[in-house]
Structure formats: structure tokens, C-alpha cells
Amino acid sequence: MNKKILSNIALFLTALIWGLSFVAQKAGMDYVGPFSFNFIRSILGGLSLLPVISIAKIIQKDTRTKEIKHEQHVNLAKAGLSCGAALFTAMSIQQYCMLGASAGKAGFISSLYIIYVPLISMIFGQKLTKIVKISVGIALLGLYLLCFKPDSGGFSFYDLMLLIGAFFYGVHILVVNHFSGKVNATKISCVQFFVVGILSLPLMLIFEEPTLNNFMAGYVPILYAGVLTCGVAYTLQIFGQKYTQPTVASLILCLESVFAVLGGCTILHESMTLKEIIGCVFMISAVILSQTKGHPKLPPQQTRDLEEKETLNTTMQNQNTETVYK
Predict the structure, then answer these.
(1) Domain presence at residue 325
(2) What letter would DSSP give residue 111?
(3) 326 pLDDT band (50/70/90 cuts)?
């Protein structure tokens, strides 16, 4: 079996693990509160990445000078704090919403962070492409079909909060992009998870009353969200994106929201109406469409050069953004 097939399988497993993480988050609410869950899963997530960092150090010889190391350590501290603060906000909102939203719905609404990124970038002068504009329209239609309920007063509070959470996931990605060329992506992930855990700790102690028995009783969803979602899936995605075209990788990873619905139906026995299913189809179509790019016709050699350049740039960007928000 060649590396390309193996990488696609790795990305598929990544999407599966991430999709089912919404099920774990929902199930975890039966044992502990939102801040308690985020505290323990984030600490476990940071710890699970330490072996990955250690193995990378052993495999790759460190040839950096003291000056470069010092500069990168400073950038790592800045990146970890900034990314951790943004991720803490997004994760706290999303986890709180798991008290009232289904795993499937949370998965689809949260996936709109991909649409938010270009919208937020527009504030800083970036123009929206036609594809992004169309994607936003399709996403809004899908969101209406998925969440709007005339008999219940329209959108629920949890749906609106999940939208806000998705916005902060988009902010988080842009913050990561800012630091991506300065610090190793794995190290950013590790530090930011510890930051999320530390920020969650006082809120956990103030608003919740966690006990060791609660944590032990919910060890299955907690370990899944902490170790599998962060450490295992992260490593699988790095391998997968190394040997797969960026566009293909993005499309495979978009299956995360689909797996969230399937996991919610099979494990938590959640259900969706036909209207909500159609809304999900529109939303995943918007996410997939937003990841496609059109280019003008070029001579064959120029086309190949452009594709190689974009593959390198997009792969580096994906490794430093999409992997670290989970």
C-alpha cells in the first residue's frame, strides 16, 4: 500500500476521531461541568503531545543557535498565550452549548469556522472571492434549515452561542496563522492546551463542584476528548497532510461534521428531521465549496509550478492551523 493511500486513510481516521469527539463532549456533560471537562481534556491533550515533541527532537537534529532558540522560545510563549486565550473562549462556549445542543448539530455549526476565517480577514482588507460569497449564502441557508424552528421562537440560545463559538475558532486560526512561520505547530498546540487548562481551572472551581469520582466516572469521554482528539488525531493528520494534496485533505477532513451526526445518531440515539438533514447537506456543501479554488488557464509548465507552490504553502498552512483548533 503506497503512502498516498495510507495518508488518505490517516486523514479519514482523523475526521472520524474529531467527529466523534462531539459525542464524547456531549457524553462528558453527564459527569462534570463544561469548565471541568475542558480543564481535564486540555491538560491531557497537552500531555499527549509531549511524546510527539520528544520523538521529533530525537529524530531531527537540533542545529539552532542560542539566539535563534531564545527568539523561538519567546515567540512560543506569545503564540501559546494568544492561541490559548482564543481557543479557551471558543472551547468554553462550545462545551457549554453541549448542555443543550445535540452532538450532530454542534458539529455542523462549529464547522462554520472555515467560513468565518475569510469573513474576519475581510476586516483587515482582504477581499472575498466569489466562491466564498456563494459559500456564505449556502451556509446561511443550511443554518436556517438546520436550526430555525418557527414553533419554538426561531433559533435556540444554544444554536446562537455555537455560532459565536465558531467565530472564535476562526479568530483562533488567524492567530495561529500569525505565528505559524515563527514556531513549531506541535509546540504551539501543546502550550495552548496547557493554557486552556490553566484558564479553565479557576472557573471550574468557582462555578462547578467537580470531584475525583466524577472525573473517574466519566473517564471514557474525557480520555477520548483529551488523548485521542488531541494527541492521536493530531499525529495522524500531520502524516496524512504530508503525502496528500491540500484540497483532497481539506475535503476528507470536512467529513468531521458528518461523523458528528452519525455518532450522535448511533451512540447517543439523537435524531434529525428531514428539514435538518437537508440543512446539514447545504452546510457541508458550503464548507467543501469554500475550500475549492479556481485559477486562470496557464501553460502546462506554469500550471505545474503553480500547483507545486500551492501544495507546499497550503500544506504548511494546514499543519499550522486546522490541526490545532481541536
Answers:
(1) no
(2) T
(3) low
Confidence band, pLDDT 50/70/90 cuts, at residue 61: confident
CB 134 within 8 A of CB 126: no
- The per-residue pLDDT for 152 is 65
Residue pair 34/25 in contact (Cβ under 8 Å)? The answer is no
Considering the chain, what percentage of its residues have pLDDT values greater than 70? 88
Cα–Cα distance measured from residue 261 to residue 75, given in angstroms and rounded to the nearest whole number: 38
Q: Please indicate, yes or no, whether the overall pTM of this predicted structure exceeds 0.85.
A: no
Rounded Cα–Cα distance for residues 29 and 97 (Å): 10
The SS3 of residue 294 is coil
Are 269 and 262 in contact, with CB atoms under 8 Å apart? no
Decide if 38 contacts 95 (C-beta within 8 A): yes
Residues 13-21, mean pLDDT to the nearest whole number: 92
Residue 7 is part of which domain span? 3-320
Cell of 111: 464547522
3-state SS, residue 221: helix
Sign of CA dihedral 70, 72, 73, 79: positive
Number of domains in the chain: 1
